[in-house]
UniProtKB/TrEMBL annotation:
Name of this protein: Tf2-1-like SH3-like domain-containing protein
Organism, scientific name: Vitis vinifera (Grape)
InterPro entries xrefs: SH3_Tf2-1
Taxon lineage: Eukaryota, Viridiplantae, Streptophyta, Embryophyta, Tracheophyta
Short name of any one Pfam family annotated for the protein: SH3_Tf2-1
Superkingdom of origin organism: Eukaryota
Domain Tf2-1-like SH3-like residue range list: 17-81
Length: 92
């Protein structure tokens, strides 16, 4: 069973400076609770990786208004891919 499960898994690693989306869950982060869970964006970003903490955790540079911990497990991160046709899209 394990060998079949491992075939579908992929090992994700990021380098310092890589841009990622961060998965935000309203249950875990109290600063997001005033809004109904269906209205909260699941992934927020794109933020740069500041460094690796342990084997599967990364420190991410977040804006101070989020007021959440800066270290995330790799399963809460998703790589950001810039659109070559519209490089400014997604920037605020």
């Amino acid at each position: 069973m394990k060998k079949w499960a491992d075939k579908k898994r992929h090992h994700t690693e990021y380098k310092v400076g890589d841009m990622v989306f961060v998965k935000l869950l309203p249950k875990k982060f109290k600063s997001l609770r005033p809004v109904h869970k269906g209205l909260v964006m699941r992934y927020k970003g794109h933020f740069p990786i500041l460094g690796k903490v342990g084997k599967v955790s990364y420190r991410v540079e977040l804006p101070p208004r989020l007021k959440i911990h800066l270290v995330f497990h790799v399963s809460y991160l998703k790589p950001y891919h810039e659109d070559k046709n519209y490089p400014s899209q997604g920037m605020s």
